[in-house]
Each structure stands twice: as C-alpha cells, then as structure tokens.
Amino acid sequence: MAQTPPADLVAAPITEITADDIAALGVGTAILGTGGGGAVYTAQITVENALREHGPVSLVQVDELGPDDVVILMSGIGAPTVGIEMLSASGQIHALLAEAEQLLGRPVTTLMAAEIGGSNGIHPIGWAARLGLKVLDADGMGRAFPDAAMVAMNVAGVPCEWAVQSDVVGNISVMKTIDLHWLERHARALTVASGSICIAAHYPLTADTVRGAVIEGTVTAAIRVGHALLSASDPVTAIADELDARVLMTGKITDLDRRTVGGFVRGSVTVTGTGADRGRLQRIELQNENLLVLEDGEVLVSVPDLITIIDAETGHAITTEMLRFGQRVSVLAWACDPIWRTPRGLELAGPAAFGYDLPYVPFEGETR
Fold first, then answer.
1. Whole-prediction pTM
2. What's the pLDDT band for 80 if we cut at 50, 70, 90?
3. Out of 15, 25, 38, 335, which could bridge 119 as a Cys pair, Cβ 3.0 to 4.6 Å?
4. Could you give the C-alpha distances from 149 to 157, 159, 180, 203, 331, in angstroms and in order?
5. CB–CB of 126/94 below 8 Å?
6. Which domains does the chain have, with CATH numbers?
C-alpha cells in the first residue's frame, strides 16, 4: 500500500533527519545509486536504530557552515556483493574519526556522504548520530561512482591531503598519496586484503573550500524522490517525473553476467522488452554501477549520465548485486549534474575513464 507523507512534507525545508525519514531516504538513494553504492536494506535498519537511540541529526546547507566547521567525507568502500553480509564492527567509526581528527589537529563537526547513491548515501546519517555530528545536505558525486577520483572536489581542483581507512578487525591505514588515482589503487588493494569491504574518511573541507566543490541539496533530493515513489499509485512514472528522467524500456532480465573482480562487481545485464517494448533488447554494462545502455549497436546513454534499473511494478531500485534472471524491470536514465559535463568532469568520469572508446553524448530527459 502506498504511503502518503504529511501535507507539504516534501516541499518543506529539511533541517533535521529522524528515523521516520530513513525509509524515503533509502528508496531515494537506491535510485540515485545507479545500481551501486550498496544495497540499502541493512543500512536502513542500522541507521534507523542509530537515530532512535541517539536522536535526530541536523541537516545543514553549505551557506550555513561557519569558520569553525570542518566537513569530512565518510563512506564504505568495496564490493556491494560483500557489503550485504559483512557489517561494520562496533567502534569502527569512532576509531576512524579519532584518527582523522588527529591528522587534522581539530575536531570534525560535519559529515558528508562521498556519494549519495545506495547505502553510502544513508550510512553517514547513522554515523553522524553515533558521533554527535551534523550532516551536510550535499555529496561528492550526485550519484554513485566506483572510483575515489570520481568526486566533484577533484573536478573543482580541491586537493585531498590524506585518507584514513579501517576494516572490521581493527586495522587502520593512513594514506597520503600524490593524487586520487593513486589513492584509489592503494585503498582498493587494502580493501581487497580486508575482505573487500572497509570504511573510509577523507577530503576534509572547510566553509571556504566546500563552496563550488560539492553537489548541493542531494540528501533533500533523495528524500523527495523516496516520497514520490512511496506515495504514488504509478511509482515508475512518479520517479521519472521527479527526476526528469526517461523510461528507456520495460522488460524482463533474460541474461546476467556478474562477477566480483578486484574489489568491483563487473559484468552486464540484458533486458528483453515486454508489452509495448516487445521485440526490443537492451544491454547494460556494469562496474558496481550501471555504465552504458546499448540497443541495436547504439549507445543510448553513458556515464556520467545516470542509469537505474527499477522494479517495473513497485518502482524500487535494483542494485547490481540484487539483479536476478526473470525480474520484470524498467530502465530509467536522466542527465547528470553539470559539473560532470565539464572537460575535467568527463576526463574523470566519462566513458573513456571506464575504458570505453566512444564519445560522450549528453543525455536529456524527454516527454514520455
């Protein structure tokens, strides 16, 4: 049964997040995750429990940050398939924050999601509740990406001096790399050695450095997308309208090639059209996230634009690790944040960054 939010809830400014917001946030981040970021179910449970135990978390805007505020990104890193079963350890985030503050020489006041997509868009809320910190209504991607270098701060030229990473058995690693490409190599190797899932903190930002270097309003946007789905009688259309997205096709998963390699989920999924789309066939390329949609040898959509596979009836997103043969799905696509369409953004997260020798053609939503 559809859930109807209280009047004007979606339009009202969001200044704090409570346990009652997490269902909508989870739905929204799963859709914005473009297949990646990790399944939201276990994250949703742990974050709801954290908020009930420790109380609401303040959600602040970039313009509300003061001179004493320090923002730090916190996220999970690894293969989403592993993250379903391997949960974080008690005290892991406290040890991570303590190491980060020792490197900073000052307290952290605010957490920000490295990516709004999937569980990485939810977990920082629970971590902030446990740590007594605020959350910034922004993130580093506006979606999910699989590589540490693919963040808006890197596009904007803000340096990352260090990163801290911890695993479930208590190992803490500090990395001071020459750039974020090297950070990705080191962090991924450590993650694989730790069972393919870790928690990381990096990119300390101040009120001055954060402006123009993050994608603002994405926590609020995720909650609004979630409410649109949960309150709709036609959730697929409601999501598409909220995101200005296009439904590329509706059909059934008829082939799935998925494997965990080097800390990533890689492969492809084939969707065969049903109903009005009968006779059509699309292939979606995967690397943690959905990267390309191809039909009849033509690329319809590519990164950095967003591609999400959702349940054709309920509208709920299906992450890459949860794709199954026979599922009835709709494929949605919509335009990315403008920062990713700059030359530097495309260098970091365009098709070539994932090994595809093809030009980027901007995708725009259309009337369905």
1. 0.90
2. low
3. 38
4. 11, 11, 5, 11, 27
5. no
6. 16-218 (3.40.1610.10), 235-354 (2.40.390.10)
Question: Region 197-216: what's the mean pLDDT?
Answer: 94
Q: How far is CA 363 from CA 49, 248, 307, in A?
A: 39, 12, 10
Interval 123-146 mean pLDDT: 96
Structure confidence at residue 314 (pLDDT): 96
d(CA 317, CA 321): 11
Other CB atoms within 10 Å distance of the CB of residue 306: 27
Structure tokens at 120: 């990485």
Count CB neighbours of 301 within 10 A.
Answer: 25
| Token digits of residue 68 | 């004493």
Query: Alpha helices, DSSP H only, in the chain?
Result: 22-32, 41-54, 80-83, 92-104, 123-131, 152-156, 180-193, 207-210, 218-230, 235-243, 343-349
DSSP string, 306-357: EEEEEETTT--B--GGG--TT-EEEEEEEPPPGGGGSHHHHHHHSGGGGT--
Contacts of 91 (CB under 8 A, 6+ apart): none
Residues of the chain above pLDDT 70, percent:
92
Please state the separation of Cα 246 from the chain's center in Å.
Answer: 20
3-class SS at 281? strand
- Give backbone dihedrals phi and psi of 37, rounded to 5 degrees, phi first: 85, -5
Structure-block tokens of residue 210: 């954060």
Write b or e for each residue in 89-116: b if 16 or more Cβ atoms lie within 10 A of its Cβ, otherwise e: eeebbebbbebbbebeeeebbbbbbbbb
Q: Say whether 4 sits in a helix, a strand or coil.
A: coil
d(CA 320, CA 245): 20
Tokens 């390699």 correspond to what residue?
A: 261
- Cis omega (within 30 of 0) on the bond before 304? yes
| Counts of helices then strands in the chain (DSSP H, E) | 11, 16
